[in-house]
Amino acid sequence: MLTDSQIKRIQNEIEKQNVTFSHLKEDILDHLCCEIENEITKGTDFDSAFNNTFKAIGDNGIKKIENETIFLIDYKIFVRRKSIFQFATIGLVLFVLGVFIQLVDLRISKFFQFSGILVLLGFIPLFFINNLLQRSEKPVLFNIYGLFSSLLTIGAILFAIQNWPYKELIFLFSVFALLILFIPTYAWSIYKYQWNKIIHFSFLYFVFLFVSLQFSSYLYKKNNTANAFIHLENNTEAYVEYYNSEIRKINDLSFFSNNNYQNVREQSDKLYNNLEELKKGITTKKTGFWNIDMYNPNEYENNFNNLAIQFSKYRDYCIAQIADNKLKVLINQSFTTEFPDTEIWIRSNFFQTQTTVINNITRLQRDIKFTEYQLLKELMN
Amino acid sequence: MYNKNVIYNIALYNYEVYSITMISKELLKGSIKSIVLKILTQHERMYGYELTQKVEELSNGTIKLTFGALYPILHKLEDDDLVETESEIVNNRNRIYYKLSNKGRKSALEKIEELKVFTSIIQKIIEHKA
User: Fold this and answer.
1) Who has greater pLDDT, A307 or A194?
2) Can you tell me the ipTM of this complex?
């Protein structure tokens, strides 16, 4: 008769092949124990009987038996299982291809990467659904929580890409579903059902790392001062509106419409509209195919150079009109395009990500309106 | 297209797992189900290893069923409600016993009859003299 530790050793060896279907694992454990006991009664010692038996089975012999059992019982389950993993392979291939194509063409590569990720995202819920449909020893809770949190995560990604409302709320829900529901159930299942601990725990570790990275980046975004600045920048349109209304008030009082006054308004409007057009051009790029950030600063190189020239002209003109020294310094600082040089001004403002560039343009528009308002006030006095 | 591929895989695997001496696996493959049902009709309940031993004993050691051949068929029979299982702890491990259900008893008789007819026909063909 075999001792407990010997049985445990056989069990661990079977465990390595990850058999989950019904009570097949128990059948095989008992069968192998009987075989080894039989060998021992013939006079072989446990170790060599153990080695002989598992040598005959091979590296994934038991897994193959499981496959044939599933195949015999339900051909559909077998096909479904295989095709789901083929589906995932396609996704991975697309993604890896995308990474390599990045060296040649950024846009085609983005398309490949994006579709690869989409296919992989589809694979995860399919995997859990398949587990639920299949009579396996895998716990129901693991699959239900897995399905639930993976669907939430996909939802969060979709909302983030499309920039729909409540995207942050759904993101938080998905992170909490993963952290509170899925990961503990998964860890519990590994112990309860004695899954291969090395494979499963390393996978779990990566899931946990990924989720906590996502979560911490979310918190970082919330608390980062640079980000707060961008949030403020998003409100620059409110400033522009305020200055516009103030300018209108001055306009209504313009019983002294002289040449200078008209000139200021024309020049600033021209610059403002130039910026507005540029902004529209960049913004529509975003709603391109797959909604991917398609902004390429090199396309606008000429526009930027022109802008720099227009800016310095406008600044010089404004400074010439103003008597107040403080205001002069202020306008000079906010409109400087030559510090340290024009090239760097263009790079720091426009050779950034799409959102940052749009923010920068809006900020410049706000500065123009502010200056116009100050100038008109100055002229009125 | 897919079907072919799967069947190819299964055939390949059969080659590795069915270790049957003397009698070729192709000949035996179709009758394993009937043999298992036949043996179960004569016993109250049996476990997997016991079944393989019984087959070996009855065939004078010519048919050695490995667990790779046996368990897929036992699980298939269980799925078709032809056999029932009960588990019991023996020698510190879970042992699963298989026994025929009422439906299985009927099916076993049919299968045995079918095999008898088949072997007699085969015998007739083999012994036929022109």
Assistant:
1) A307
2) 0.78
